[in-house]
């Protein structure tokens, strides 16, 4: 087919530049019968009509959403309005699920960054009284540790992660521990304690109100002395703890390698004595 209107067609080089698909890939697509040129001359030169740009763009789009070249070829070989509607409807659900997952990852990153930035602006060792708005959390089940079943910390954390994932929280959101002050023990961790994630939205919250807030270094096993300092401070200010205690890790395993460098924020809900 030597006699054709050359100006109406694109050479493979021109088509590759216009479509963003490499010449090598265009030749490969032709070899597997996925995407063929409109004209192939005796000398092997390939030419594409402009309408092919739309077709190859659709192939690229389907490839981007995870379809294999074989799956795309199967669709293009048998495409009809009905098969297109069916494919796009199914793929739309997959895309929406991926978007939801990526949005959750973005939210997690935003919250971890906010926590780390807060850690750089506080004075470790300080204690104060402040009003706090309600904060969304995913609160896990109580970490019951009865005499008949001594759960290790690793087992309890694992159960929390599994429970959170089953509820749709699969990312490593900033985490903490809720303690019921009515069941508080010297180590600050007992059968009434619950792990939680700080999350963007939830039907569970840390309640708004007045809190004694303090900041200290270290893992939760090393903060007993700081708790005593906070209790003394609260009493001296004419307050008492009103049940809820929250421990948040502003710096944690994600942001620092050494547990001694963790920064823990302890918030105790208080009322006037």
Automatic annotation (TrEMBL):
<dbReference type="InterPro" id="IPR047057">
    <property type="entry name" value="MerR_fam"/>
</dbReference>
<dbReference type="GO" id="GO:0003677">
    <property type="term" value="F:DNA binding"/>
</dbReference>
<keyword id="KW-0238">DNA-binding</keyword>
<dbReference type="InterPro" id="IPR009061">
    <property type="entry name" value="DNA-bd_dom_put_sf"/>
</dbReference>
<dbReference type="Pfam" id="PF13411">
    <property type="entry name" value="MerR_1"/>
</dbReference>
<dbReference type="InterPro" id="IPR011256">
    <property type="entry name" value="Reg_factor_effector_dom_sf"/>
</dbReference>
<dbReference type="InterPro" id="IPR000551">
    <property type="entry name" value="MerR-type_HTH_dom"/>
</dbReference>
<protein>
    <submittedName>
        <fullName>DNA-binding transcriptional MerR regulator</fullName>
    </submittedName>
</protein>
<feature type="domain" description="HTH merR-type">
    <location>
        <begin position="9"/>
        <end position="78"/>
    </location>
</feature>
């Amino acid at each position: 087919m030597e006699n054709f209107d050359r100006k109406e067609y694109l050479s493979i080089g021109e088509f590759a530049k216009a479509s963003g698909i490499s010449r090598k890939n265009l030749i490969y697509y032709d070899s597997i019968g996925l995407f063929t040129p409109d004209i192939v001359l005796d000398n092997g030169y390939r030419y594409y009509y402009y309408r092919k740009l739309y077709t190859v763009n659709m192939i690229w789009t389907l490839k981007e959403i995870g379809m294999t070249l074989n799956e795309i070829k199967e669709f293009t070989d048998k495409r009809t309005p009905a098969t297109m509607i069916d494919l796009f409807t199914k793929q739309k659900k997959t895309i929406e699920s991926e978007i939801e997952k990526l949005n959750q990852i973005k939210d997690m990153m935003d919250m971890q960054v906010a926590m780390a930035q807060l850690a750089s602006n506080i004075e470790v060792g300080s204690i104060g009284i402040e009003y706090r708005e309600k904060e969304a959390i995913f609160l896990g089940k109580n970490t019951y540790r009865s005499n008949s079943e001594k759960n290790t910390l690793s087992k309890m954390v694992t159960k929390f992660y599994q429970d959170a994932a089953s509820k749709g929280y699969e990312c490593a959101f900033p985490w903490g521990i809720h303690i019921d002050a009515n069941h508080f023990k010297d180590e600050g961790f007992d059968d009434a304690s619950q792990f939680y994630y700080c999350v963007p939205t939830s039907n569970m919250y840390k309640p708004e109100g007045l809190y004694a807030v303090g900041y200290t270094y270290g893992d939760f096993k090393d903060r007993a002395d700081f708790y005593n300092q906070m209790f003394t401070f609260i009493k001296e200010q004419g307050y008492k703890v009103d049940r809820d205690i929250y421990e948040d890790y502003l710096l944690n395993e994600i942001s620092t390698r050494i547990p001694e460098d963790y920064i823990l924020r302890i918030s105790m809900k208080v009322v006037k004595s």
